[in-house]
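(Deposited chain)
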Amino acid sequence: GHFYLDLAVAHGVSPDESDFDITKYDLKNLGGFPLGYLVELSGPEGSGKSSLAYRVVGQAQKRGMKCAWIDAEFSFSKKLAVINGANLDELDVADLVDTDDPTHLYSAEEIFERICDLCLAGYKVIVLDSVANLTTRAELDNRLDEGGVGMAALAAVLSKALKKIVNFAAKFGAMVIVVNQMREKPGGL
C-alpha cells in the first residue's frame, strides 16, 4: 500500500533513481510483501520493524484480509497500530497471557503451532513480534541436563519450526511476518 516500499520490495528499484522509468511498471499491481511467504523484519532496537508490521497489517485489513498479531514481547502499542492504519476491532492480538493460569509461560514451540493454526484458520497476515523474546519448552521446564537452553536451543527449534511455518504459509496463502531484533553482542542487551 506504499508506492516506494512496494516498488522496492517487489522490483528492487527506487523511484528516486535517475534512470527510473515509471511506464515499465503496472501501477495497479506494484507488488510489496508477498502472501504465501515468511518475511523477516530485522534490525536494531527502535528501527521501525514493528511500525512497518503495523502498516502492513493496516493495508491488509483495508483489502479485507484477516490479520493476527502475536505479542511475544508484551510491547503491542494500540496507539502505533492505529497511527499506522490498523483497525483494532478487526485485529486479533494474542498477548500470550493465560487468564486461566497466569503462571503459564508459552514456549516457542507452542507459539509456532499457533502460527500454523492461524494459517489453517484463514488468516492472511500473521505477525510474530518478536523472535528475540521466545523461550524453548526445555528452557521453561529448566531441563538444563538436556542441553535445551540458550540461543543454540532456540536456533534448533526455529530451524525445525520455520520449515513447517513456511509450508503452511505457502499452502494457505498467508504472510507470516517475523520481527527479529539484531544484537551487537549475542546474549547481551
In short: Helices lie at 3-11, 49-62, 78-83, 108-120, 137-140, 150-172. The first helix runs from residue 3 to 11. The beta strands are 38-43, 67-71, 91-94, 125-129, 175-181.
